[in-house]
Amino acid sequence: EKDILNQLPLRGKKVLITAGPTYEALDPVRFIGNHSSGKMGFEIANAAANLGAEVILVTGPTHQKNAHSLVKVVPVVSAEEMYNEVHKHFKNSDIAILSAAVADYRPKSVADKKIKKKDSTFSVELEKTKDILKSLGEIKEHQFLVGFALETNNELEYAKGKLKSKNLDLIVLNSLQDKGAGFGVSTNKVTFITSSNDIIEHPLKSKAEVANDLMNQILKQLHA
Ligand code: CTP
Ligand code: CA
């Protein structure tokens, strides 16, 4: 049995993954969030663990269940908490895959009591959250860094821009143009773009298959 385990390609490697949405509090009972199910990130964690990796999965609020003993789930709520947990584990990681749908903005101030309804309109001032992926691109050393890009238009151009500005080794372009891809469904249509500008298009597949394709692409680039 030990011999078989030793043959796994990511045996002894540490993989850091983010998943799910983040919730940004407005008051004690309300938040701003998004529809990310976390499924893609949990499938990637499972695929990496099946290759022998020790996985840390930092996830926003989801209903996903982790079934793999090599995956350690670290639950967080806000973008700020996700940033802090990710930075605790990054230095010690070999591969980081950031698939979370992190809120880009959060309420500038959080009310300490429930906000009562008053006027006929209500506006909230928002401030930018920290870009977790970009912050890793700025400090990365040996780590292989993977990001996602969710786009509806000018897809390749925007994804290539993110690959470069965030200093990534690989970006997964998630097409929201096709139905059956993206939020809430169990399928995804992705294109991989590498730092050496290889573009690999995949047909519509289950998120579990996309996760395996992604791990294979990472192994390929690591061994090149
Ligand atoms: N990301 C992150 N922290 C943020 C925002 C995004 O780590 N505060 C990561 C996501 O997990 C994803 C990548 O950055 O891997 C791209 O996210 P995306 O929302 O597509 O791009 P943004 O850079 O936020 O730009 P925009 O939403 O304006 O397209
Ligand atoms: Ca964003």
UniProtKB/TrEMBL annotation:
Cofactor info, note text: Binds 1 FMN per subunit.
GO biological process, one term: coenzyme A biosynthetic process
Listed EC numbers: 4.1.1.36, 6.3.2.5
UniProt GO cellular component terms: phosphopantothenoylcysteine decarboxylase complex
Catalyzed reactions: N-[(R)-4-phosphopantothenoyl]-L-cysteine + H(+) = (R)-4'-phosphopantetheine + CO2; (R)-4'-phosphopantothenate + L-cysteine + CTP = N-[(R)-4-phosphopantothenoyl]-L-cysteine + CMP + diphosphate + H(+)
Functional pathway: Cofactor biosynthesis; coenzyme A biosynthesis; CoA from (R)-pantothenate: step 3/5; Cofactor biosynthesis; coenzyme A biosynthesis; CoA from (R)-pantothenate: step 2/5
Alphabetic keyword roster: Decarboxylase, Flavoprotein, FMN, Ligase, Lyase, Magnesium, Metal-binding, Multifunctional enzyme
Ranges for domain DNA/pantothenate metabolism flavoprotein C-terminal: 10-220
Protein family (similarity comment): In the N-terminal section; belongs to the HFCD (homo-oligomeric flavin containing Cys decarboxylase) superfamily.
Function of the protein: Catalyzes two sequential steps in the biosynthesis of coenzyme A. In the first step cysteine is conjugated to 4'-phosphopantothenate to form 4-phosphopantothenoylcysteine. In the second step the latter compound is decarboxylated to form 4'-phosphopantotheine.
Protein name: Coenzyme A biosynthesis bifunctional protein CoaBC
Biological classification of the source: Bacteria, Pseudomonadati, Bacteroidota, Flavobacteriia, Flavobacteriales
Residues of the full protein shown: 180 to 403 of 403
